[in-house]
Amino acid sequence: MHWLLLIYVCLDFLPYVVTSPVTYENVRGKPYSVSYDHRAIAINGVRTMLISGAIHYPRSTPGMWPYIMKMAKNQGLNTVQTLVFWNIHEQKPGVFDFSGRANLSQFLQDAADAGLFVNLRIGPYICGEWNNGGLPVWLNQIHNISFRSNNGAWKTVMRTFLMKIIEYVNPYLAKNGGPIILAQIENEYNGNDQAYVDWCGRLVINELSSAQLVWIMCNGHAANSTIETCNSCNCLDDGWIDNHRRDYPNKPMLFTENEGWFQAWGEAVAIRTTVDTAYSVAEWFAGGGSYHSYYMWHGGNNYGRTAASGITTMYADDVLLHADGTPNEPKYTQLSRLQHLIANYAQILLSQDSIRTLLPYWNGQKWLIGTQQFVYSYSPSLHFISNQNDNTYNVLFRNKNLTITGHSVRIFDDNLNLLWDSTNISDIRSDNTEIFPIVMGPLEWRTWSEQVTSDLPVLTSLYPIEQLKITNDETIYLWYRRNITLTQTQIQSHTLVRVETRKANALLFFLNGEYLGEFDNHDHSQGSLIAIISLDLSIFKPNQQYLFEILSISLGIDNGVWDNNFEYKGIVGNIWLDNQLLVNDETNLWEHQKGLIGEYLQIYTEQGSSKVEWNTQWTKDINKPITWFQTRFNLNHIVREDLNANPILLDARGLNRGHAFINGNDLGLYWLLEGVCRDSTPCCCQQAQINCLEPTQRYYHIPSDWLMPENNLLTIFDDLGAPSPSSVSIVQRVVIA
Ligand SMILES: *[C@@H]1O[C@H](CO)[C@@H](O)[C@H](O)[C@H]1NC(C)=O
Ligand SMILES: *[C@@H]1O[C@H](CO)[C@@H](O)[C@H](O)[C@H]1NC(C)=O
Ligand SMILES: *[C@@H]1O[C@H](CO)[C@@H](O)[C@H](O)[C@H]1NC(C)=O
Ligand SMILES: *[C@@H]1O[C@H](CO)[C@@H](O)[C@H](O)[C@H]1NC(C)=O
Ligand SMILES: *[C@@H]1O[C@H](CO)[C@@H](O)[C@H](O)[C@H]1NC(C)=O
Ligand SMILES: *[C@@H]1O[C@H](CO)[C@@H](O)[C@H](O)[C@H]1NC(C)=O
């Protein structure tokens, strides 16, 4: 037995005897202990089945949290899991923010109020398709830092942040009667630095031991003092359960991420079928798992500029609760039934170890024993029969000939009554919502075009400077400006501009304020590339000086961060006009302007909107790049009052690409880019693609607490130019009973 386990057992003075089901309601407000044995996490010494779902606080809003928690509890969860997002809490070194969507303590209180335990995955590297994997970009400036490694500079900042968070959440720890029972250090660490893994392990048993939590490390190397956990689509079929039993016989089996996956711009919407999710969750509990978390249970939205490279604003929409907060049927109900069943039988399941027994299958002529049809029986009353094969088979169980569909699990009681079938969703309605317009008639827009030159401070240099170094990612926009003189050849033929830039970046080109064209890459990855675009300069004159401008737009910082692979944005090397190299010319320096004028003046807020002269002749600005649109609307025709259950959405049809703001709040990047269906089967846990050649995302969620009954200020900044603003509308998605 591992010594840590001994300590926990000794602290408890209680044997692992199952008494009654433990939920947070049973222990709230009083200090309680968290420990584990090989079968489960134990609360006050009682093995407890943790039925969990991931909900990320900044991917929804404080006004939504109580609703989401209530839904989670009703759907059958007893635990929620969240990452901790360093780069929203400490955007500038030493300046902490725990307000609004970053109000982690409010989120923990809302979980506690709903009666839910919490698994806090601190990291601080979190991946999560979150901008820069959760790390503040100012870390890039720390001398000699090497991320996620046994590096002094990294360990110093990582330790400081972990200690800060543990201190901040102290009232919410189990030892103080709060909901937090499990914490995570690091995330999916698959590097080769064992000294770093050991350091993580020492940190949780030394400096962080006073938190009295159980610590996990997921899907990768785990320190001895932590529990390694599974992130996958199916932890039984992929062999994880067998490996874990062999490698960690004294540690319970915890499934931190049953993947619902995510969405990238330009791809068709990817779907994981309900029956596949149901199969994997049922197999997990059958196989002896005692903690299961959907990743995500509610994906929410990447509001503002929080999405990682190429990731859409809706996050993991095809999970149990849609990105807009409506139940995703039939998944929501089918898995709810399973979770309630598992909760009802938790004591029986956790009182014994899981044992797999192979079952004879009918090959058409005789019964054979293979490896893909088996039962996990929990005496006295529960039997999980699983068929891992793609095809339906008949199996022999207790002299009964039972039909089991391919890739499915059926759960029976001891009299062989069918309690649940992973494939049977026939009585669940999937068309459970309808969309209604709530603003009648086209919106009355006014416009203001972003000025290409301004009085804003600029930084000059011989070479273009990498974007994040200047912006600290406080804005996704950076202007690069320089004077150029065109040659006769350049204006006669199309001129090739080549720029060394990064993936997930857009570049818009202007000459004396005239828009020439754009380049964009929206890969969900990182790395350098050379942007090449052909510009028509025939309207310009030779041997005359022009102002050449590039608006660089970050389309998210990739979430993969390790060692010295710093992520960059904007121009990261040379730039050429044909063969003319536009750097290192003392008579023509590069100027850099951080952000847009509209951002400085905050023209998307009540106070800021009066600082510019809006033009009401808005139709003149159709298709005009870098243009702001503004309008007001009332919630006149709402069908249902509860805007959490029946969300309000921006239908962005008619726009191109940019950000939309409601009453000063940034809804995130919208983009009407069409989604392409791939010929091959979609990646990872997904089985299908929908909405081929439709925009990857057309509707954008507006949180209830950002709305007012009347006079809502809607502001749009479309960088490419909006082709049909009159098509934009505000709608409500209503759940039908
Ligand atoms: C977080 O929420 C709580 C409860 O609403 C509030 O008292 C507290 O002031 C909030 N924190 C911040 C930093 O805004
Ligand atoms: C930074 O790294 C270099 C090369 O590894 C080393 O020589 C130098 O001492 C380091 N500086 C600090 C402040 O750690
Ligand atoms: C972790 O456990 C393994 C196997 O028992 C042992 O070889 C190793 O030294 C331990 N590491 C640390 C840092 O305690
Ligand atoms: C088992 O049931 C299947 C389907 O009903 C049938 O085809 C098969 O013959 C049965 N096998 C036996 C041994 O009864
Ligand atoms: C599926 O479930 C429904 C409702 O419980 C039931 O009526 C139906 O018979 C089931 N279908 C199959 C094929 O088991
Ligand atoms: C371009 O040249 C003009 C004067 O000819 C100067 O005022 C301006 O600052 C220059 N612009 C840049 C970006 O260097």
TrEMBL record:
InterPro entries according to UniProt: BetaGal_gal-bd (IPR048913), Galactose-bd-like_sf (IPR008979), GH (IPR017853), Gly_Hdrlase_35_cat (IPR031330), Glyco_hydro_35_CS (IPR019801), Glycoside_Hdrlase_35 (IPR001944)
GO MF entry, a single one: beta-galactosidase activity
Ranges for domain Beta-galactosidase galactose-binding: 627-712
Domain Glycoside hydrolase 35 catalytic: 41-340
Keywords, in A-Z order: Glycosidase, Hydrolase, Signal
Domain of life: Eukaryota
Similarity-based family: Belongs to the glycosyl hydrolase 35 family.
Name of the protein in question: Beta-galactosidase
